[in-house]
């Protein structure tokens, strides 16, 4: 799943709003929560300061096509590899924060580092997503590839990362992954991001939100309203952490239905967008 893993406008939503970022969003971090057995030495010892999104931040998500940088959102979630450096530079010059997306739980045969995965690292195909296969997230080689991707995110000037497909154990990956191995891997990702001064989001993995909310700086959710899962994000919102939500159902393109959605999103302290499944900027409705 290139970006689908599981599954406030108080008037008709269609506009975008923004407010000035606060220096308070940069938070000092003296330690990271992770299993020491899975961390590189730098991740165990390095103390860094990093930006973190707040619950009030507006956002935009676009993973395909030429990124539209004109929206007055404060945070842009864009593809780590496909987004040109010039686009990231332009966003940063506007004072935007940049989250860089990559799949941490699947191989994608069009990525430039695909050949670095061993045959044994790759399991079953992801249903509905051509060219993707689940990864054995216990693999040291897989983890080294993810470390290199986060190095790339740091070098490109990303403020944070959005690692996707981090709930393989709930699917049929072709490996004996469990809730325990998933927690270990997700905490590994969080610690490695923090060691590089990057904010890191928990993408979906709804069943483990309560266990991982202290490890991650924000959450990215797909379709929690459609699947009645939004209440699961209270461990994030009660800490004042951002929960960026996107809905794909076509019913939300209708103004009256969207108004009810946005009212619910505001009440739950979620930042909700209604976007096309291809995430190509064909349309955008924001519950700002």
- First-last Cα distance: 27 Å
Tally of structural domains: 1
Number of helical segments?
Answer: 7
User: In total, how many beta strands?
Assistant: 14
**Pattern of helices and strands:** EHEEEHEEEEHEHEHEHEHEE
Indicate the CATH architecture. Alpha-Beta Barrel
CATH fold category name: TIM Barrel
Structural class: alpha/beta
CATH superfamily: Aldolase class I
**Highest-level CATH class:** Alpha Beta
Q: Radius of gyration, rounded?
A: 18 Å
- The coarse silhouette is globular
What would you call the quaternary organization? single chain
Helix fraction? Answer: 10-25%
Q: What summary fits the major beta sheet?
A: 9 strands, mixed
Query: Strand order across the biggest sheet?
Result: 3-4-5-9-10-11-12-13-14
Percent of residues in beta strands? 15-25%
Uncertain spans, ≥5 residues at pLDDT below 50?
A: 1-47
Average pLDDT metric: 88
Describe this structure in words.
The chain is built from 7 helices and 14 strands. 24% of the residues lie in helices and 21% in strands. The strands form 3 sheets. Strands 3-4-5-9-10-11-12-13-14 form a 9-stranded mixed β-sheet. Strands 6-8-7 form a 3-stranded antiparallel β-sheet, with no helix packed on it. Strands 1-2 form a two-stranded antiparallel sheet.
